[in-house]
Amino acid sequence: MGEAMDIVLRRMPELGCSPTIVTYGTVLKGLCANKRSQEALKLLQMMVDDGGSCALNLVSYNTVIDGLFK
Predict the structure, then answer these.
(1) Which terminus of the chain, N or C, has less C-beta within 10 A?
(2) PPR repeat positions in this chain (predicted)?
(3) What is the DSSP letter of 54?
């Protein structure tokens, strides 16, 4: 999963691609499924801090909340 996060957060922008909410959602779900919900929470915060280039949605929040309680 660390490699996937590296691709989303570093490589995609280097290649001229912007991660979408679906891209971030996939990484969030993968982190939570692998019991790494604290990292998912940090990624969610990074998305908020980014200032809106990728708007969060209810699914993003629910994914992390669900992961925190598993």
Answers:
(1) C
(2) 20-54
(3) S
